[in-house]
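User: Assemble these into one structure.

Assistant: Restating your components, then the assembled model:
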Amino acid sequence: MQRAELLGRLESESEWDIIIIGGGATGLGAAVDAASRGYKTLLLERYDFAKGTSSRATKLVHGGVRYLAQGNIKLVMEALRERGLLLKNASHLTRTQPFFLPVYSWWKKWYYGIGLKIYDIMAGALRIGKTRMVSKKTILQNAPAIARKGLSGGIRYYDGQFDDARLALNLAQTAIEQGGTVLNYMEVRGLLKENGKCNGVTVVDSLSGKEYEMKSKSVINATGVFTDDVLKMDDHLQHKIVSPSQGVHLVVDKKFFPGDYAMMIPKTDDGRVLFAVPWHQKVIIGTTDTPVGAPSFEPRALNDEIEFIFRNVNRYLTSDISRQDVLSVFAGLRPLVKVPGQKNTALMPRDHTIIVSGSNLVTITGGKWTTYRKMAKVAVDNALFVAKLERRACVTESLRVHGWLSENNTDDPMSYYGSDADAIRKLEGQNPEWSEKIHEAHPWIKAQVIWAVRQEMAMTVEDVLARRIRMLFLDARAAIDAAPEVARLMAAEMGKDESWQQQQVNAFTALAKGYLL
Ligand SMILES: Cc1cc2nc3c(=O)[nH]c(=O)nc-3n(C[C@H](O)[C@H](O)[C@H](O)COP(=O)(O)OP(=O)(O)OC[C@H]3O[C@@H](n4cnc5c(N)ncnc54)[C@H](O)[C@@H]3O)c2cc1C
């Protein structure tokens, strides 16, 4: 995946079939869908792939137990089906995750047990494990950190778990393999129009400053919480449709929640669910639901949200987690679509919304990572319809995502690379220095940085430490310590000088401080 080579295609292509704005889950899914149907496809991402919400999820491939409780059967059925497909098509990045829902009164065991049994049955042929009521002993044997006082047992159920930013990256690679063109650091600044119909975009390459006008038969707006900015480019009188809602996660050492199980806390102070999920040898705890005014690319956790998580999770743990135990804190913004009269974001629907403007601009927003494939299909179908493009069938139901492997050893720290892992090991053979770790406390090695630059379109130190490897999200202090070495390795690969290295380290350090408590 070479950015310079892909940029060259912009000069040679006079008109695209479909341009997609936004390189998160939704946009990248649309790029894979459109390219794999054989359309001339271009995706433009303002920063890096998954820089927005799509790197900041709870990392669950799930139907959404909470939405079942809210009676949103259609969303849960659809998400459970998509969960099953994703576990098959991206087996190197996803796995089945067992959960305990601990209960402290006998009737709740029945209440939640029946609900989760229904959840399990709703997955139909794509079921991934049987829901069962379990004893206190079983819970404590497998998840010894769960508070034992008053525990009357619980429910064991199964959902999926994944690496969100790496899936985004692998989708970008899949789209390119299918003939699409996918570029990061390309900001769409305006829409081109002819006779009131949208027929392209104006773009700036934020790395070189070069401007482009790209013509296209159709344009898809997949910009998440920035949806309204693009809608305004289309019609400056357009009212806002997105209500961003912030969710915060804390990452702590595995010692606070040892074992392979995740935990679902069914009811927090504000009536939500809270998860503690093992991820890359650490544990993610979250999340919150806080309405925010204007969207930002680097949302920050509020003190109240952090205290909320501590208060709720510590009730369920044998020993308390406190501020000094947090390795990283990250926040993401849900692109929820406004409902007239509804101010509580927790009650706003999680389904996706599609809007076709009078100019033929197709906007898709909302939804979940889990349902990205279905959303992509709907967006592309609408784009084809308005642009009167020849209709070709969607093939993504069984399309394998780049890196797919039939067997994956999840104990191997390289397992997330799937079929690319061997090529990274070969790099280690080429240069013994590249087998060295970039930080003594973590498994990541220098060859992964080289690979990120050569094959994964990493352009900045942040791209590597936040999204190619997930160090920023797993241990922000260690990521700050590793930044100078990552900058040095990148500079050697990219032909950059010392001032570039210094600028990168300074920018990354400033950003990463926001992930420390
Ligand atoms: C706290 C939290 C936890 C979540 N947990 C889960 C979970 O466990 N499982 C699950 O299935 N879902 C989860 N979700 C939902 C899921 O993460 C989102 O639905 C999904 O990531 C949204 O993807 P998107 O592509 O629509 O938006 P984004 O990922 O935000 O992508 C939009 C992209 O558009 C780009 N962009 C904006 N303006 C422009 C422009 N002018 N030109 C070019 N590019 C532009 C941005 O840079 C951004 O990268 C969670 C969400 C949150 C907030």
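The mean pLDDT is 95.
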